[in-house]
Amino acid sequence: MVDEPGNQPALVNQLASAAIKVLKPGGVGVGSLLGLWYLVIESKVAEAIAATLIGFCLSYVSKLWEPIHQGNQTRAKNTGETINIAINETIEQLFAKATGAEDIYLLCQALDCRDYKPEGMGARDRIFIPMLQEVFVPLELDSSSIAPGLNRHGQSPEDWQELRIWTFLAQAQQEPAYRQLAVVAWGGFGKTTLLKHLAYIYSMRQHEQYGVPPLVPILLPLRKYRTQLTSAQPPTLPELVMKHHLKHLAELDPHIQRLPNNWAATLLLSGKALTMMDGFDEIPEADRPALSRWISDQMRRFDRSVFILTSRPTAYRDNFAEPLRTKLWVRPFKPKQQHDFVQQWYLCQERLDRGGRDTPEVQREAKRNANNLLRQLNDTNRPELADLAKNPLLLNLLATYHRSNPGVELPRQRAELYQDICTLQLRKRPDARSIELPLSPSQRQSVLQAVALTMMQRNLRLIPEHELVQQIALIFQAQGHTVDPKVFLRQIIDVSELVVRQGLEGCEFAHLSFQEFLAAAQISALNQEALLYPHLANANTQGDDLAWWRQTILLYAAQTNPTGLIKEVLRQGAHDLAYACWQESQRTLDANIAAELEALKLTLQTSRYAKLEELLKTQQWCKADEETYRLMITTVGKEEGQEFDPEDLLSFPCDDLKTIDELWVTCSDGKFGFSVQKQIYVKCGAKLDSKYPGDTIWENFCDRLGWLKAGKYLGYNDLKADPSISPTGEFPIARIFWGWGQFSFGEGGGASRKEKESGWSLEEEIERRRNKSRGSMGWTVEREQMKMKENLRRIVHLLSHQDL
User: What's phi and psi for 136, nearest 5 deg?
Assistant: First the structure.
């Protein structure tokens, strides 16, 4: 029974006092709302305080307590209002009891990062925004950029792939290479969420559980400070923090302004700061060189502190003048990560939908729904779903779609998923909230499609609001609508949330992928495929503006019959893009389109491998080696500079593998090739089970291939690369298994097209990076040898391929 109103203040004060003990910096900081439920619903003060001490969290000020969901009973509504008041009073007391200005700063930084709201994910009916720490799943990082000598903390070679950000932060004080980390990945892979997680953990002083020293986090979304950073006289990093970052956080508590004027400079100079700069690729391309120089200058000035920069790969590769010392790729979500996220996400949704109850029946319902979603994702008859679930943003969208459409089959393709989410936001969400919007749902999407295409053509991710209103007015005029464009935009932002405001800077789509999808949909609706033709060559794997038009082209291919597009791409010589379009369209349900695509397969294969065949026939073995890596890494959907996961090699498309192998075997008169290496591997006594065969068999195998001499692994440039004198099976090898990592502190990622046209060569690049590595702290011959062995062992997975 709920207490009488007269008793509420005393209970709230008891709860607030208990919460302050755990919510202040250094407290527990994560948990559940069971304590509040006991307090307000059951009037069990002792249980409430105990449960709160175990698991109270900072989260649900905004969405969880929007007193309570439509249809709830009056008692539940009153409960939600009471809880909301309790939380607000608790946080106010927490600020009041903070021990100093820096404690207030840490608390404000934590509050700014507490909600799990990945970009592109607005609020939806029955979809609540949980606390980040309750659903966050650690990201795994690509180890191809790891320096020789990284302390593996006793890990076995099988565990070396599971590298996380804490591994590098733990060694940053001893190893300068790890004070500059560039985290790169395409959209939706969780880069921003990772930085928010780090900011929250350090702000709440929970870092000790990860074995890292204390740091004060400074999270800077670069696009928020674009105007300041791209001005003629940009501020220094301490000035940016004190004048702009603190001003933003002061909205949570003005007492943060009590920090001394030299606080940021002192922090940075002493090496106690973790500066995280998010979204280098979100800055317009023309401004990136200047921003790159500014970032490099600040890192040099404050070299004792740790810096993390996030970016999409092409923007970082082509526009960052002085690459950071260590480059890390974010790995796609593995099945266990997908499982953990779905289970945690559904538990939060079911609990929050019931006013915070975390009782057995709620847990049972969450588990039932999560398992239903996971069964679909793991259905071997629908492998396309497993591919979508590798991207955290798409997995979140799939979970949202699953919860919003119970009993409906999940979408098959990215394009279909984006369309379903647009439908959810433009039609179902307003209907569920009984909100009447101008225009029909299809007309609303048509307007947004026209906006998206114009922004793509103007190379805009962010557009000033007054320009957007003008653009919408022109679209309305062309389409014959009489709606006020300002009203339309406001409702799209407030209700549908496919477009969001970014302060005074302007508006943008909730995620760049929605802009890309809607632009592709507009081109399809207009039947103007030719609009894409000028961008095809540059959107190829090695193109200059790969990051901007490539996804729009692929999403267009998924929405239409792409045979004409693929033929035009082949005509322009963009063979990798043609292959990617073909892959994107493989799950079409249209039998006629499927037949046309199958007829194109041979042409695609021939054109795609023409360069490799030419290099092999002219006996340019090292260049053919590099081309082999490029073909293989793009075939599995990764970018140059990344490494292969075991599953990439074990499930490598058999037709492509056979084509590559046959070319090597034929052109070398049987001296080189994967199948040649496989025969030697078996003769050495190895089993084709993808497991490491043991040191004796392994070293015998490497010795026979010429990779090992007198017990030492040879450098790449020490290989003979000549069938007349090379040991049988010496090639292919270069970056497929040798990798960049043993030669550098992770600049990797390959050369841009401009670099290659200016005389770049694989051999010279490897030697340069190897020399740089040898001059770095912690380098030893033993550590370099360990890294070589680690990289080479990946071949075991390919040699175990059943179709080789």
Answer: -65, 130
**Positive/negative CA dihedral, 657, 663, 664, 669:** positive
Q: Quick one: tokens of 60?
A: 């649900």
CA distance 473 to 481: 9
Q: Please write the tens of the pLDDT for every residue from 702-712.
A: 999 999 999 89
Beta strands in 201-290 (DSSP E): 216-221, 273-278
Quick one: tokens of 216? 């004060």
Helix and strand numbers, DSSP H then E, in the chain: 38, 9
Residue from 190, 291, 210, 203 nearest 252 by CA: 203
Tell me the CB-side half-sphere exposure of residue 494, using CA atoms within 13 A: 10
Question: Exposed e or buried b for every residue in 195-207, given b needs 16+ CB within 10 A?
Answer: bbbbbbbbbbbbb
CA separation for the pair 493, 437 (Å, rounded): 12
Q: What would the two tokens of residue 648 be?
A: 């990439």
Does residue 784 register a pLDDT over 80? no
Q: What is the DSSP letter of 427?
A: I
Cα–Cα distance measured from residue 646 to residue 633, given in angstroms and rounded to the nearest whole number: 13
SS (H, E, C) 146-168: CCCCCCCCCCCHHHCCCECHHHH
DSSP state of 355: T
Name the strand (E) or helix (H) holding 712.
strand 712-713
What's 370's DSSP letter?
H
Across 135-145, average pLDDT:
80
Q: Does residue 253 have a pLDDT over 60?
A: yes
pLDDT interval class at 772 (50, 70, 90): low
Q: 280 in helix, strand or coil?
A: helix
SS3 content of the chain, % helix, strand, coil (to 5): 60, 5, 35
Is the separation of the CB atoms in 543 and 553 below 8 Å? no
The torsion defined by the Cα of 694, 697, 701 and 702, in degrees rounded to 10, comes to 50
Tell me phi and psi for residue 499, to 5 degrees.
-120, 140
Helix axes 621-635, 610-617, angle to 10 degrees: 160
Task: Band the pLDDT of 747: cuts 50, 70, 90.
Answer: very low
pLDDT at res. 803: 81
Which H/E stretch holds residue 311? strand 306-311
3-state secondary structure of 436: coil
Classified as helix, coil or strand, 500 is: strand
Q: Virtual CA dihedral for 703, 707, 712, 715, nearest 10 degrees?
A: 170
> Do 585 and 562 meet the contact criterion of CB atoms below 8 Å apart?
yes
Q: Which long-range contacts (CB under 8 A, 24 or more apart) does 581-585 make?
A: 581/553, 581/554, 581/557, 583/637, 584/413, 584/414, 584/554, 584/555, 584/557, 584/558, 585/557, 585/558
What average pLDDT does this structure show over 511-526?
94
Domain 134-329 has CATH 3.40.50: yes
What does the alpha-carbon distance between residue 600 and residue 606 come to, in Å, rounded to a whole number?
10
Q: Residue 728 in contact with residue 671, Cβ under 8 Å?
A: yes
Longest dimension (CA), the chain: 95
CA distance 509 to 501: 9
